[in-house]
């Protein structure tokens, strides 16, 4: 099983369903490994070159593997691998080690924001375990993946959705359209090894901008990756590009989706690229380059008719009938539409438990004097409004000051904000989630903000707003609109205590 031929079988993994090159089919010649082919071509044959970069890359990666590691690659590819046993005795220590590794990462602004918004969600054992399984219980790799997860989540979904599971209700119209196109689906059936099947179709891509499709991919994947069975058994990908004749590489989407995939709690144990037109070859080459080393060694391409591809996929444990295709090999969107409807119903059942607010919005004002409260966008907006009106407040009589406090409360609420305080509804749920503060408590919050701002202004001789932290000082490359410096705490004199 470890002969040179078997190793080459993994290295040269792009060809026809019968193992031959599309250009040599039925020509009576010795089949040539298709990774020798390239769209750059030669003078004699425009589709063949002696060796390309991908061949060298895969060969080098394969040579670095031990005998046992090669065996694992073959088993993963053919759907005969089984998930390893989890040691429950050491699980608690591994989770603790992961938390320590996260704490040692200096640049993790998005993660810190998520912890502040919903510490129960981010720090839960089930959430961390989901990533540990994807990283084979390596605490250091897990910590990096979790930090990256929130980094990309912030970029795609914004501050309001950072500390929560993404629901269908959170998706904009463009993302919902991309989702319902069926270009990306997580199928209800599993392969013969019990692994989830992720289906991609370039021909079905319908999106106005890449972010819409990326959000759709994120939503679909995270809906199923919370399932412990999917976490243990991993996933296989089927990229179905039969009847696809448009030479659109979707380069931006490919590159960005590969980065996001690395921040997902998933094990990719097989990648199958199906096509029937040489024009798709650049997409195949690009996909091989960006999927990463582990998935690249588990990469197979299938060139031929829908019937040929059907039998080829079955050799790898993937039932063709599970794919969302009709009898002609065309896209059938009934499965994705059923998936969306099931998700909407399930999310409605989980909505707002016990009347508690689990996820503050960016326009909300949070009660309390902690540094994270001060850095919350709604609190910063309150500080700005108060600073604008501080001269009016200082010159006003007591009754007018009270009216001014109420006016600012209304300004916050009219802008879609709420005044929230930590939940204290029961001993069991105390400190878990948020509850809307009374109007009287909201007015007191504004009044305290005025007094603190006036006192600070008289002491510093300047505007309180000028003392507010620089909103764009984050060391990580986030959009300006969502950059709040949770990683570093400025000098206490620069704080605006609201």
From TrEMBL:
Which residue stretches belong to region Disordered? 22-46, 453-498
> Per the record, where are the segments of Low complexity compositional bias?
464-475
Q: Name one GO cellular component term.
A: membrane
The record ties this protein, via PANTHER family, to: ALPHA-TOCOPHEROL TRANSFER PROTEIN-RELATED, CRAL-TRIO DOMAIN-CONTAINING PROTEIN DDB_G0278031
List each copy of the CRAL/TRIO N-terminal domain by range: 124-149
Pfam families given in the database record: DUF6824 (PF20710)
Instruction: Please give the organism.
Output: Cylindrotheca closterium
The molecular function terms in GO held by this entry are:
phosphatidylinositol bisphosphate binding
Q: Which domain of life is it from?
A: Eukaryota
The entry's protein name is: CRAL/TRIO N-terminal domain-containing protein
């Amino acid at each position: 099983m470890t002969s040179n031929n078997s190793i080459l079988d993994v290295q040269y993994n792009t060809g026809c369903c019968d193992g031959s090159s599309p250009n040599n089919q039925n020509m009576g010649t010795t089949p040539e490994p298709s990774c020798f082919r390239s769209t750059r071509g030669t003078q004699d044959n425009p589709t063949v070159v002696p060796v390309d970069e991908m061949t060298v890359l895969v060969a080098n990666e394969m040579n670095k593997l031990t005998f046992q590691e090669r065996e694992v690659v073959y088993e993963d590819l053919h759907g005969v691998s089984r998930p390893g046993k989890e040691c429950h005795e050491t699980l608690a220590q591994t989770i603790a080690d992961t938390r320590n590794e996260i704490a040692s990462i200096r640049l993790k602004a998005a993660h810190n924001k998520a912890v502040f918004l919903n510490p129960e969600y981010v720090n839960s054992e089930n959430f961390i375990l989901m990533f540990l399984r994807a990283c084979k219980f390596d605490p250091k790799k897990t910590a990096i993946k979790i930090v990256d997860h929130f980094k990309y989540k912030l970029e795609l979904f914004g501050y309001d959705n950072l500390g929560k599971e993404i629901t269908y209700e959170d998706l904009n119209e463009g993302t919902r359209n991309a989702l319902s196109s069926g270009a990306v689906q997580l199928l209800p059936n599993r392969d013969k090894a019990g692994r989830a099947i992720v289906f991609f179709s370039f021909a079905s891509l319908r999106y106005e901008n890449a972010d819409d499709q990326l959000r759709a991919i994120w939503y679909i994947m995270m809906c199923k990756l919370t399932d412990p069975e999917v976490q243990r058994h991993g996933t296989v990908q089927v990229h179905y590009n039969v009847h696809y004749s448009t030479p659109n590489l979707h380069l931006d989407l490919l590159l960005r989706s590969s980065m996001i995939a690395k921040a997902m709690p998933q094990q990719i144990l097989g990648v199958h690229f199906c096509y029937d037109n040489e024009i798709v070859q650049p997409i195949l080459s690009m996909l091989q380059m960006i999927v990463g080393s582990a998935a690249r060694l588990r990469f197979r391409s299938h060139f031929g008719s829908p019937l040929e591809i059907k039998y080829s996929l079955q050799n790898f444990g993937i039932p063709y009938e599970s794919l969302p295709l009709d009898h002609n090999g065309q896209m059938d969107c009934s499965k994705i539409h059923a998936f969306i409807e099931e998700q909407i119903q399930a999310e409605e059942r989980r909505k707002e438990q016990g009347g508690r607010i689990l996820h503050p919005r960016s326009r909300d004002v949070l009660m309390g004097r902690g540094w994270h409260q001060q850095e919350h966008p709604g609190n910063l907006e309150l500080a700005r409004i108060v600073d604008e009106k501080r001269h009016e407040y200082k010159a006003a009589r007591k009754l007018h000051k009270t009216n001014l406090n109420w006016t600012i409360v209304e300004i916050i609420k009219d802008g879609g904000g709420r005044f929230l305080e930590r939940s204290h509804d029961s001993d069991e749920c105390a400190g878990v989630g948020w509850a809307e503060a009374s109007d009287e408590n909201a007015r007191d919050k504004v009044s305290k903000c005025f007094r603190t701002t006036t006192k600070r202004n008289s002491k510093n001789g300047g505007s309180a707003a000028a003392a507010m932290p620089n909103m764009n000082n984050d060391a990580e490359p986030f959009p300006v609109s969502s950059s709040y410096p949770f990683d570093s705490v400025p000098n206490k004199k620069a704080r605006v205590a609201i």
